[in-house]
């Protein structure tokens, strides 16, 4: 089992020091900030289902859902989530999709 790092918006200054480590391990899990967060969630699910652990480092990201634009900034930037199981992933999804205000994007 390996731990995969998923970076949402890898150009953010706060996480540039992870760059080499991330690309060395699994660059295909990088999701750029203009993509919808659901793409990142799907990728995380794939990684968890194959038995790997995930460390998500979410930085500032803006994404669209139902024609509304949610800006996720200081509340979660950077937000580190250790995701080892499907339940961990569901908790992450709930945090992003439940409330419109904050909605409350790996090694």
How is the secondary structure organized here?
Elements: E1 3-8, H1 19-26, H2 37-49, E2 53-58, E3 61-65, E4 68-72, E5 79-83, H3 86-97
Parallel strand pairs: 1-2
Antiparallel strand pairs: 2-5, 3-4
Describe the protein's architecture and organization.
The structure is a single chain. The protein is an alpha+beta fold and 107 residues long. The protein has one domain (3-97). Helices cover 31% and strands 25% of the residues. It contains 3 helices and 5 strands; from the N terminus they run βααββββα. The chain has helices at 19-26, 37-49, 86-97; strands at 3-8, 53-58, 61-65, 68-72, 79-83. Strands 1-2-5 form a 3-stranded mixed sheet. The protein has a two-stranded antiparallel sheet with strand order 3-4. The longest helix is centred in the middle third of the chain and has 13 residues, at 37-49.
* Helical content class: 25-40%
Mean pLDDT: 48
| Broad structural category | alpha+beta
Taking all Cα atoms into account, the compactness measure Rg is: 13 Å
Strand content: 25-35%
Number of domains: 1
Taken from the alpha-carbon principal axes, the silhouette is: globular
Q: Distance between the terminal alpha carbons, to the nearest Å?
A: 11 Å
Largest beta-sheet characterization:
3 strands, mixed
State the strand order across the main sheet.
1-2-5
Low-confidence stretches: 1-12, 14-36, 58-80, 96-107
Tally of individual helices: 3
Topology, number of strands: 5
Order of helices and strands: EHHEEEEH
């Amino acid at each position: 089992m390996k731990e995969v790092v998923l970076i949402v918006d890898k150009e953010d200054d706060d996480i540039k020091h992870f760059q080499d480590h991330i690309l060395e391990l699994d660059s295909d899990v990088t999701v750029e900030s203009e993509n919808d967060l659901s793409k990142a969630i799907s990728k995380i699910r794939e990684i968890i289902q194959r038995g790997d652990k995930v460390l998500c480092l979410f930085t500032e990201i803006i994404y669209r859902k139902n024609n509304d634009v949610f800006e996720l900034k200081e509340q979660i930037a950077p937000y580190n989530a250790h995701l080892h199981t499907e339940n961990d992933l569901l908790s992450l999804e709930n945090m992003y999709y439940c409330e419109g205000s904050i909605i409350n994007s790996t090694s």
